[in-house]
Design brief:
The protein is mainly α. It folds into two domains: 45 residues; 183 residues. It contains nine helices and no strands.
C-alpha cells in the first residue's frame, strides 16, 4: 500500500533535518550547516501553558477588582443612606468620597484593559502582553498615589472612624450600641492611627504583587521570544 505523497515528503524532510542536526556537533559545525529549528522543519513546537495561566488569572483578577471598585463607588455615594439603616447619622468625609470616586473611575477602566489583554494572551496575540504591561505600570502608579493620599488623609479617616463609633454607641439597636460602647472603652486614637498606617501599607503592598508578577513573567527573555512568534502561530 502506497503512502500518501505529502506524508512521504514530510518523512523525508524530517529525516534529512534530523541527520543535519545530528552531524552539526561543535566539532564540525560550520556556517554551511546551520541548526535547523522546529519552525524550519515545518513542525510546530509544543505550546506553553503560561499564556493560559496568566490569561485566566488576569480575567479573574480583573473581574474581582472591578466588582470591588464598583462596590467602593456605591458606598462612597450612598454611605449616608447605608448608615441610616443602622440607626446612625454619619456622612463620609469629602476627602474620602473624592478619593473613592476617583479611584473607582480610574481602576474600573484599567480592570477592563486587563481583561482585554488577558483574553488576547489566551488567544496568543502579541497585543495581549502589551496591554497587560500597560495595566501593570498604571496599577503600580495608582498604588503609590493611593498610598500617598491615604497618608495625607489618615487623620480624616481616624476622625471618621471615631465619629462612626460614637454614633453607633448611641444607636437605637441595643446590640449594636452595647458592642460599640465596649469598643469605645478601649479606644485609643493614637493606636488607631498607627494601625491605619500599617493596614494602608499592607494593603498597598498586596495590590502591587499581581502587577509585579505579571510584569516579570511577560518581560523575561524566554517569553519575549515566544511572544514575538505569536504573529505566525496565533489561533
Amino acid at each position: 500500500m502506497k503512502h500518501p505523497q505529502p506524508l512521504v515528503q514530510l518523512r523525508e524532510r524530517l529525516s534529512f533535518c534530523m541527520m543535519r542536526n545530528m552531524s552539526n556537533s561543535p566539532a564540525d559545525a560550520s556556517p554551511s550547516q546551520p541548526y535547523v529549528s522546529a519552525y524550519e522543519m515545518g513542525v510546530e513546537p509544543a505550546r506553553s501553558s503560561w499564556p493560559t495561566i496568566i490569561g485566566v488569572l488576569g480575567i479573574a483578577y480583573a473581574a474581582v477588582g472591578c466588582c470591588m471598585q464598583t462596590a467602593g463607588v456605591a458606598y462612597a455615594n450612598f454611605n449616608a443612606q447605608i448608615m441610616k439603616l443602622q440607626g446612625v447619622d454619619v456622612q463620609l468625609p469629602r476627602e474620602m468620597t473624592l478619593a473613592m470616586n476617583v479611584q473607582g473611575g480610574i481602576l474600573i477602566p484599567l480592570g477592563v484593559l486587563l481583561a482585554i489583554g488577558s483574553i488576547f494572551i489566551l488567544r496568543r496575540r502579541a497585543i495581549g502582553p502589551k496591554l497587560v504591561l500597560l495595566w501593570a505600570a498604571a496599577r503600580l502608579i495608582m498604588a503609590v498615589v493611593g498610598f500617598a493620599w491615604g497618608i495625607m488623609t489618615i487623620d480624616v479617616q481616624v476622625k471618621f472612624t471615631q465619629d462612626t463609633m460614637n454614633a453607633l454607641a448611641n444607636s437605637s439597636n441595643p446590640a449594636i450600641a452595647k458592642a460599640m460602647k465596649e469598643q469605645l472603652a478601649s479606644y485609643d486614637p493614637v493606636t488607631l492611627r498607627r494601625e491605619g498606617v500599617r493596614n494602608l501599607a499592607l494593603t498597598t503592598a498586596a495590590f502591587t504583587i499581581v502587577p509585579c508578577v505579571m510584569g516579570f513573567m511577560l518581560t523575561s527573555k524566554k517569553r519575549k521570544a515566544e511572544i514575538a512568534a505569536w504573529g505566525q502561530t496565533a489561533v
